Amino acid sequence: MRWIPCVLATALCAGVATEASAQQIMIAWGDEVSTLLLTNAALQAEIKLTGEQKGKLKPVTEKQAKFNKEFTDAFGPDAKAGFDLVQFNVMREKQAELAAEVKTALDNALTADQRKRLKQIALQAMNFMIFNDPDVAPKGPAYTDAQKAAMKEVGAALKLSDEQKKAIKVLADGVSNDSRKIREEAALGGLTPAGVGLPPEKVAAANAKLDKVRKEAWVKVETALNESQKKIWKELVGEPFDLATLRPTPKK
What's the domain of life for this entry (predicted)? Predict the structure, then answer.
């Protein structure tokens, strides 16, 4: 499954939102798509995860739940101590070790079709970052090896021209700027649990605005592709998945 388990959501499982990979804070894509599969009902339904498969994944699911609690206790809204960078880095190392274990468990439990669909959703979740140059360091947190691998795969498949790359970058920058304004208006931002302390309706309204901005931009991205590229892109990402179902539930 190569990079597939390393593109969507340890952060989501831990109930944490970051601005590292996506253009909208409340979706907050982290590093692991497969980790989220262990607990997210919508994702399980999408790939048709069976009861037998859930049973096989139970041990690693319980380990993930334990890690999530440790992370939330240390860095969540009720954390007693301030932000400890050393501890945070230790937790990231533990996260990487657990991700490798999750990958092995999923490789053994999922069918080829399930892995393919999971990979498609992972690409969708990377949003406009999927078109970035993996060899150019981002302004924010560094890309993970998995993110770089995904970018290289898509880049090699689509073979975008320089003109197309520029057009997509303009769209991505526009989404980033619009999203930042929406987050500021909603009083959201930073490394905080998604929507903690805010009325759920306010978070939902901000999410709706972010979704609208992103979807409108994606339509323009697809019009920038030629017919051959559109077919390749369709195969890479499959049918649209409702990424909103992967968001952590806002807490009051």
Answer: Bacteria
